[in-house]
UniProtKB/TrEMBL annotation:
Disulfide bridges in this chain: 142-198
Domain of life, per lineage: Eukaryota
Domain Ionotropic glutamate receptor C-terminal: start-end pairs: 5-193
Protein name per the record: Ionotropic glutamate receptor C-terminal domain-containing protein
Cellular compartments per GO CC: postsynaptic membrane
Chief localisation class: membrane
Site (Crucial to convey clamshell closure to channel opening): 60
Compartments it resides in: Postsynaptic cell membrane
Family according to the record: Belongs to the glutamate-gated ion channel (TC 1.A.10.1) family.
Record field: transmembrane: 31-53
Organism per entry: Photinus pyralis (Common eastern firefly)
């Protein structure tokens, strides 16, 4: 009974008044103390690593991060407005990105939006595209995500011939639709409320944790056996 309580007391780090007297039992007791110290320390050290769910951190958060690395290639639609924006930009970050895209081999430019999106889905590629098309694509494929905000902001317009009497009428009609919120309603209808949009409801997800197995702390049992 005394040996049992001594063993349990040391394992629980509570100590015991029943200390061994003989030299041989003191040696065995010392080995047991050493074993319990290692196993508790190992368990504490591994607990955070194996039972804590860590938030995944995206290595690329904005254009500066993208421009500061070369491991992940990035490109635009060839001959598109985004490509023209980078080519003509006077901002140093965007100039650096343009030099990378222009000199990268094989070419990082794509012929269609579909080709660019597929390259992203295939992995290790970032596609720089118009925000309207980007929103549409991200809403329909949960494997896609937008990183960072807008690099530039421009509005769409309806072209008319020079001096056309329809120019002012069309402009006023568009402003009226904006003020009434109808343009936003149309955007929500065709971009967000269609049946083929993906659901990004993270609230229902359950976090999973790895169990701490014998393989993780098996070394301390080897110490005990050797002792």
């Amino acid at each position: 009974a005394n040996s049992f309580w001594f063993t349990i007391g040391t394992l629980m780090q509570q100590g015991s008044d029943l200390n061994p007297k003989a030299t041989s039992t003191r040696i065995v007791g010392g080995i047991w103390w050493f074993f319990t110290l290692i196993i508790i320390s190992s368990y504490t050290a591994n607990l955070a690593a194996f039972l804590t769910v860590e938030r995944m951190i995206t290595p690329i958060e904005n254009a500066e991060d993208l421009a500061g690395q070369t491991d992940i290639p990035y490109g635009t639609l060839e001959s598109g407005s985004t490509m023209t924006f980078f080519r003509d930009s006077m901002i140093e970050t965007y100039k650096k990105m343009w030099r990378f895209m222009e000199n990268r081999k094989p070419s990082v430019f794509v012929g269609t939006y579909e080709e660019g999106i597929q390259k992203v889905l295939d992995g290790n590629y970032a596609f720089l595209m118009e925000s309207t098309m980007l929103d549409y694509a991200v809403q329909r494929d949960c494997n896609l995500t937008q990183i960072g905000g807008l690099l530039d902001s421009k509005g769409y317009g309806i072209a008319t011939p020079m001096g056309s009497p329809w120019r002012d009428k069309i402009s006023l009609a568009i402003l009226e639709l904006q003020e009434k919120g109808e343009i936003q309603m149309l955007y929500d209808k065709w971009w967000k409320n269609t049946g083929d949009t993906c659901s990004r409801n993270d609230k229902g997800k359950e976090s999973k944790a790895n169990s701490l197995g014998v393989d993780n702390i098996g070394g301390v049992f080897v110490v005990l056996l050797c002792g």
